[in-house]
Amino acid sequence: MLTPDEEKRISVDEAIYLSENRFDEPKEIFKKISSIIKNHDYEESMNVCDIGCATGEFLYYLKTIFPKSNVTGFDVSNSMIQHAKKMIPDGTFYEGNANLKKSLPENSFDVITMTGVLSIFDDPKPPITNIISSLKNSGIALIAGSFNPNPIDVVLRYRDANSNDATLSSGWNVHSCFSIEKIIQEISPKAKICWHDFEMPFEIKQTSDLMRTWTVKINDKMSLVNGACQIVNMKILELIP
Known about the structure:
alpha/beta; Rossmann fold; 11 strands
């Protein structure tokens, strides 16, 4: 059963992903994640799972780089899952919540990716636990999102002051690298952890949706910001259990 906040979040995401064709112009973060996967010596037929796959944009792009890979998508939105199936007919797609215990098949994937999803959860431990249990012994997880390099965890709720909807929305929590590493070490004490910084290589204009990020120059660096006055510090966590 989804909470009202989770249902609202799905509705917002569906409005974005189902109304835009973003398959022909892959995100820069997709390119960065794929370059990290390339650094590992996996067979061309590797099994890859993208958690929070939405309409399958990342997996669609990944198949252009690794055409023989077996791709699996996992998302809470049935509408987006159905769209992903149309775009990637040879893929496997599941509807489900990555925050629920054992929601993914165990010991099944060489690579698990998750982009912009961990910040939805107030407690990042359940999805990280699921990811680790679903990886093969030689697998890697790549988790992209906004992380705090300082040992401070931020749980954020926001609302649009122009709207009559007084419901507080989530989706922009910022978990600290410190807390994430602590969780991983509790689950898998021998895990190897590497953080990759990510910087947008070009300007992104502000849109009418103030919670969609845009870029500003801060100390000569292209930084992502949003309407909640957050500087979105994008990183990719590379995890080898």
